[in-house]
Design a protein that fits this description.
By secondary structure, this protein is an alpha/beta fold. The protein contains 13 helices and twelve strands.
Amino acid sequence: MNQKLPNGVNAGGLDYCRLLQGRCEADRLPKDFSPERIVPDFAFNVLNPLGLLYRPVVDEDYLAKGGDKSVWPDRKPFAVCLTHDVDLVSAHSIRQKARMRIEYIRNGPLMMSKAINLTGFAWDILRMIKHVKTQDPLHCYERWLDAEAAVGARSTFFFWPGWSSVGLHHASDCTYELTDRVIFHGQKCTVTEMIQEIHNRGWEIGLHPSWYSFDNLEEMKRQKDALENALGHEVISVRQHYLHYDIRITPRIQAEAGLLYDSTLGFNDNIGFRFGTCYPWRLYDLKAEKELPIVEVPLIIQDGAMLNPAKGMRLDEETAFQFILQITEAVEKVGGILTLLWHPDSIIRPTWWNLYLRTLKYLKEQNAWFSIVRDAFKAAGEGIND
């Protein structure tokens, strides 16, 4: 879609140029907003109160004014980006549980006392002992690759760069090291070796940096370097852990670190079109008032936003599938990109895993073109800026 960045007031009185530059989101943040503690999310979105969250209104408006859809490879009607945020690599690792408990003691919520965490760690150890002779249920990453290959797809895995590469930790950060041991294709190996094999099979490896990297260039660079050193290859795609992102700061930090593609801008507690589009676009530096070289491939659907019973939409499998059908239809109508996030640890939740397999089958039946994040922008015809 060779679309100029749209100007003027459109549906719901929105200025689409301001929307895509991030000004609408920045304007809705309260003056006392602290991105160190809160994730800018559903509550701050300008489209929701207008009833436009589940529609790519920017793309609809462009096509209504005579614009053209993207022409995807093999003349597919729309594209799909499958993505995975690798927050956990093991369910029964004492070392990873210990790192988590230590961080909660140091930086966790005030109500999480040291005594509670020490007691919790003792229970963790007892549970680990029960499973010492059984294979960890998360050590089956090949199942994700096999399921995707079966429909002619590849995906992007966003990996944490390793506990020791992070200078400043947050209680919500991942806890694995790239030297930790896992089982991949039935063989014991390090996380680094698994990452290399996933990359060698043609899947993309992206960066999943820590909570405090969102406004810290030194952290972002160090973590990018750590993952690149492990992979032996340049890393150019990123998704912030926990979607912890400040539209006023993070795009510039990512760009200065040498990252080219971000896919953070979705929701933790809902699905839909956070910026009114399912096409990639170049992000904007609100401080310097200039376009940045980093491109956003917006996140549209997240597993936890739909299926987590404790927060978000709290849907059952069938209702969630109906929402996926609705959103997919909206993307297909404008010929855009449907970007999905499914966490690899969801494989131990039968409902979540089954919904992913149903979704893959449905998207193949809809004749979607499957992409990885780094390929989506060029295939889209340079997105909606040019």
